[in-house]
Amino acid sequence: MLFNSLHFVAFFILVTTLYFLLEDKHRWKLLLISSCYFYMTFVPVYILILGFTIVVDYFAGILIEQTPGKRKRLYLILSIIANVGVLAVFKYYNFLNDNLTYLLGSFGFQNDVPYLSILLPIGLSFHTFQAMSYTIEVYRGNQKAERHFGIYSLYVMFYPQLVAGPIERPQNMLPQFHAKHRFDYAEVVKGLQLMLWGLFKKVVIADRLAIYVDAVYDNPGQHSSITLIVATIFFAFQIYCDFSGYSDIALGAARVMGYKLMLNFRRPYLATSIREFWSRWHISLSTWFRDYVYVPLGGNRVPIPRWYLNLFIVFMVSGLWHGASWTFIIWGALHGLYQIFGIAFKGVSNTKILGSAVLSNLLHGMITFVLVCFAWIFFRANHVDDALQIAGSILTLKAGSLFFGSIAGFAYSVLWILFLLLVEYTQEHYSEKIKVFANPAKAVRYAGYVTLIVLMLLFGVFNGGQFIYFQF
Amino acid sequence: MKKGGILIKNLVLLFAIVFVLDRVFGSILEYYFKKETTGDNAKTRHALTAVKEDIVIFGSSRAAHHYVPEELEAATGLTCFNAGRDGMKMTYYKLLLDAILSYHKPRVIILDLNYNDLVKEARKDDALIAGILPYIDNKIVNDFVFEHEPLEGWKARISKLYQFNSKPATILHHNMGLGSEHFDGYEPLNGSKLEEGYRVHVNTSRYTEDAELVGRFEEFVSTVKGKGIELYIVYSPTLMQMKYDYLSTPKRISEKYGVPLLNYSQFYTLKEKHLFYDKTHMNNEGAKQFTHEILGRLVDTRTPKIAEPRRLKVIKPISLRIE
Questions:
Q1: DSSP 3-state assignment of B276?
Q2: Whole-angstrom Cα distance, residue A26 to residue A32?
């Protein structure tokens, strides 16, 4: 069930209505059943995998809390092995086998290890990471083990963030599942506003851009450098609108019922450094890696070479988290290198251009965007060979005219990117002065809603398929 | 739950405003959509409601750019309309055929087949539905949409704006007199986009026919034959070579119904690349030359031209070359 489907609209209205009609003590049951249904609309049998993770981590949490000394650590390790094991089998097994085949083949040996013919469970990496954050936080003593099995299951399965995050922490969610939620008009409206804006970003911007991006990236050899540059810029906005659109709908759907999920995006393309970009992009994942990988590795409280290595490892693993493919690993590695160079040349990047902070920010923002886009080439390309071909064509300024595809579609794509940038720039710098959804005048708010709905009806692409991050 | 009542009231108000604006803006778009005289929309509208011509050409962009009605009319004395449309496939040809036959019986139909007309391609079905939603008031279109994509049909019935989804730019474009001009449906391409050192592109992609599309093709042939209309199936020229067998099925079906299948796909070589706009489409010069060529194959040119429309006569279909 996709957020951009009528199926979801009906599901959301039904679940939300029942939620407010039910007594508090029964609401968790409704949310759990509806979350199971939501997940089972993809591949029903995979609910068993989720069930396995939930049972393991539920008991691991209790055992970790009850056990003193070193055995506590043992339970944590066992729980992590179980979680990572599920990921390894369903997500990385065939990738590892592929590489083994290649490696053995280069020495003249044959790989007889069979391949698994399985579909990757939707959102596996998201709920596995969320489950792992629970046992780690219990181990660290930051969170009490949850005794209510239903509430714990809901923590892993809460439908708004089940398949593509935000990757929540138990300290934020578990108390909310125990708390009583009244119907709060203001919160419901804020939730609906978020859902509307998220849906707009998905169907009007992301899925429109996808048409051009797919056409170019599926035939990279046929296109000129200018076309590949435009397609890469389009992809940067496509993936942002696709993923942040999903997150907004998730945040909105939860908020309508009174649950506050963590912010996942904060206008990332207005960042003026790669470091800042990662404080604005997929915040729930970057903070997860910070808290559970980077800091335990020593973070920045180690000698500089080790610090650089820590950064590189974290971003490589982040790349691997996204997908079992070298394209994602290279994407992660590039961001790791960007971070290292950013630190190494901090003095240069802090220099003001012509003494102007505005000019400096503009230039740094552009450089950051170019670097992010360059890395997106590897993220989007179907294979490493394609990515190298695209990067090569761009860097060697391969001749040729600009491919438009459908001229109207191209024009809409440019128009909506400019619209998005205008909205985000306004939110960033003039949020107190210019308000639409939060405007005290009802007419202005309604004008905002109506405009978005009319634009969706007129320009939305309603067959764009699933969200990109579902595959992770 | 008093606040719940306010929420419902406000939502009703919001949707009422949206509904009114949808009707107002949708009607404005519809008005200008119907005023279009250039571009694909105008062609489809003509094909769905106003074809009176004796010869009708069906196909995709290759049909639209390869057959010059003026030339056919001059040689045969029969009127001609080229209903080829960019990006369309077998399903569209069959839909258009049903629509035309519901009010008119042409004397001759030429179906220009594309190499991938029987292959299912991502987004093509969506493109077809999006392309025909503005004509949902047409009974044939309405029945087709509700049979294949009922949800899309309901959306288009509820929202007038949705009927014209993604169309505003082209409506504006065509109402400003811009956009590809067509002459009885023929859309000339001028010049060439082929690079200096262009070499014949060999298409080695996988070829898997879709049973549904093959069925539509056979229905197309049997419907036309059943109506007693002369039918010619033609592969027009290209500068591409196919490494797969795209001809077997069309050949089998054409033989079954006794319909001539003319394969001109490799008729021109790189020596004549000046006749091509790109590797799959001929330019205006090429289209004129090809139309003359096909006339030579279709029409008994020894008979002097007569005022009265006459039956086309096949002289000799060229031999099929199956790669």
A1: strand
A2: 10
